[in-house]
């Protein structure tokens, strides 16, 4: 009985993994890496938690959000809702919500999770490492 339950759990985990891979595959995976100095004038808004900037990289650009003193969130701007439309998401005036102007889908800047709209997928996130003042972003 335990063996059967274990096999079922393993099957669910494999299916879940495939679904995540498929979701990430909706938006083109464009290899890139960037190193930025968060103290540089063009990244002034990243000098405090809650600040964000648009930057080059990824498929349609990226959003760099400073979550805490040492934690960042890097999000792909290519909307995962109907990616063939090539819509670039934008940060709303409140600095909290990101919106797809083509579908009005919305996500949170803090982690790229879905807030509203027809999208079924979160925004793609990118890996980073931070050694003050340098932020290295890659995929």
Supply the key terms.
139 residues, alpha+beta, six-stranded antiparallel sheet, four-stranded antiparallel sheet, 1 helix, 30% strand
Q: How would you describe the overall organization of this protein?
A:
By secondary structure, the protein is of the alpha+beta class. The protein is 17% helix and 30% strand. It is built from 1 helix and 10 strands. The protein has one helix spanning 2-24, and strands at 33-37, 52-55, 62-66, 72-76, 90-91, 97-99, 106-108, 114-116, 125-131, 134-138. The chain has a 6-stranded antiparallel β-sheet, with no helix packed on it. A 4-stranded antiparallel β-sheet has the order 5-6-7-8, with no helix packed on it. A hairpin with a 6-residue loop joins strand 2 and strand 3 (62-66). The chain is globular. The termini are far apart. Mean pLDDT is 87; it is low at 12-25.
Q: Could you give the distance between the termini? A: 42 Å
Number of strands: 10
With strands numbered from the N-terminus, the spatial order across the biggest sheet is 1-10-9-4-3-2
Number of helices: 1
Question: How can the largest sheet be summarized?
Answer: 6 strands, antiparallel
Question: What is the chains' assembly state?
Answer: single chain
Helix/strand structural class: alpha+beta
Per DSSP, what share of the residues sits in E-state strands of 2 or more residues? 25-35%
Unreliable parts:
12-25
